Structures are given as structure tokens and as C-alpha cells.
């Protein structure tokens, strides 16, 4: 269905994350590749949402209350690129 790519910046960030956050991102990646991004977006636990402002064109998912993964879609090849995983400021 879809292919998920994790860019170098996100790969470096993932190395510093708690293991339960890494596992949730891995689960999301597997689900996207197996079922497609459209099916996964409707799962309430991920809180997939489009972003506004300087992040317009990007989407985010919640990995926990504190952590989010930001991604963009490349429509020409159906590739989801995880561009950042970071602690969300509240």
C-alpha cells in the first residue's frame, strides 16, 4: 500500500527516545505499510491531524501525550516521510 521512509534527522531523534515511544512509531509504520495511510488516519489512538501555520502541508500523530511524529506525503510515489519526532510543548 504505502511505504514509510524516515529521514536522517528523524532517525537521529529516534535513537534518543524512550523505547515505548519507538515501539509505537514502529507499530504505526507497520500499520501504514500494511493497511494504507487513509485507513490508519481514522484510528482515534493516533490522533492524526493536519497542521497549520509554518507546518502547513505536514501532518502529525501522537506517540504519547508528550511525543509527536511529524510527516509529509509524497503523492507521486505514495511515500510517507517521517520528518521529525519530538517532545511536544504544552
Word description of this protein:
- The chain is of the alpha+beta class and 90 residues long.
- The protein has a single domain, classed as YaeB-like fold, CATH 3.30.2310.20.
- The chain has three helices and five strands.
- A five-stranded mixed beta sheet has the order 1-5-4-3-2.
- Strand 4 and strand 5 form a beta hairpin.
- The longest helix has 17 residues.
- The protein is globular and about 30 Å long.
- The model has no long low-confidence stretch (mean pLDDT 89).
In a nutshell, what does this entry contain?
The chain has 90 residues and is an alpha+beta fold.
Question: Layout of SSEs?
Answer:
Blueprint: E1 3-6, H1 8-14, H2 19-35, H3 37-41, E2 49-50, E3 59-62, E4 67-74, E5 79-87
The helix content, as a percent range, equals 25-40%
Q: Give helix and strand order, one letter per element, not per position.
A: EHHHEEEE
- Give average pLDDT, whole number: 89
Oligomer: single chain
The N- to C-terminal Cα distance equals 34 Å
Cα-based radius of gyration, to the nearest Å? 12 Å
**CATH top-level class:** Alpha Beta
Figure out the total of helices: 3
CATH homologous superfamily assignment: RelE-like
- The tally of structural domains comes to 1
Count the strands? 5
Query: Given the helix and strand composition, which structural class is it?
Result: alpha+beta
Largest sheet: 5 strands, mixed
Reported by name, the CATH topology is: YaeB-like fold
Beta strand %: 25-35%
For the structure shown, list the relevant keywords.
5 strands, 90 residues, alpha+beta
Amino acid at each position: 500500500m504505502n511505504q514509510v521512509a524516515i529521514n536522517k534527522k528523524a532517525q537521529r531523534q529516534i535513537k534518543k527516545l524512550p523505547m515505548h515511544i519507538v515501539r509505537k512509531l514502529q507499530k504505526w509504520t507497520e500499520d501504514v505499510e500494511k493497511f494504507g495511510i487513509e485507513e490508519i488516519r481514522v484510528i482515534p489512538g493516533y490522533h492524526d491531524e493536519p497542521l497549520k501555520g509554518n507546518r502547513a502541508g505536514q501532518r502529525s500523530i501522537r506517540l504519547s501525550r508528550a511525543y509527536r511524529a511529524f510527516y509529509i506525503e509524497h503523492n507521486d510515489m505514495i511515500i510517507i516521510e517521517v520528518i521529525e519526532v519530538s517532545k511536544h510543548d504544552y
